[in-house]
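pls read this protein:
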Amino acid sequence: MRQALLVATLSFPFVTPPAMGWDGQISAEYAKTFAPSDPVINFGLSLSQRLNKTFGLFLSQDVEKNMVIDSSKDELEAADTRFGVKIYPTSLIDDVSWLLTLSATLPTSKDSRHDQIHSKPEIKLGAAYQPWSWLTISGSAMGRYYIEKFETAPTHAGEGGEVLPNYRLGLGQGTSVNLGGFSFGYDYGYRETTDHAVKQTAANNAYLNEKADQGYSVSLYFSRELWTGASLSGSFSQGSALVHEGWEDYVLFDNEESSWGVGFSQSF
């Protein structure tokens, strides 16, 4: 359900390169979908170290606290731990900064351990244009590959497991405005996930998931600086899966993928 809320963390740190040494951020967000569902609190921790003008290291970990516990949920569910290298290329364009991120994950989450997904290596290239100190326009492109033991999830109760993803491609674009301690803006993301091509056991021997799964999300957010490094934020995020049969059918709004949230973050 997480839709890249915690919008106070969505600023682009490569616009103004951080000082050498360790930087970190902790965050918490109360979030709920617009469909009837149980609310959750998302906790986040990120650490980064700038090694020199060109390279840096980072690590991030998210944990979801379910406010209502049932047989299918644990009270605390960790996401996969992501770690990697940040590369800050020299820009030849005035007011434009670049950031190349190479990362991988550890199978910290329950889903990855169950499906035996070992890691999700990813490459992401981002650019930010800052013509004035109060305005930032950004864009990014990413590719992710899934390293896993099987092409389908393990069977359950005699039923075959779902086909697992093979790789994902994505694009993002956002704009933020910062005025007098207030920040507001939007972020747009598009994803396309291609699953493994696995044949059914039925007589027709048809393929599952012949087409890539596509989806998008649009987030509107605002935040207010409370004190140095701390901010309170609110956001609305609309997301949906896109069903493509020659672009004949599509879903513009999915209340199960759309949510709102209120968050707090502290940098250190």
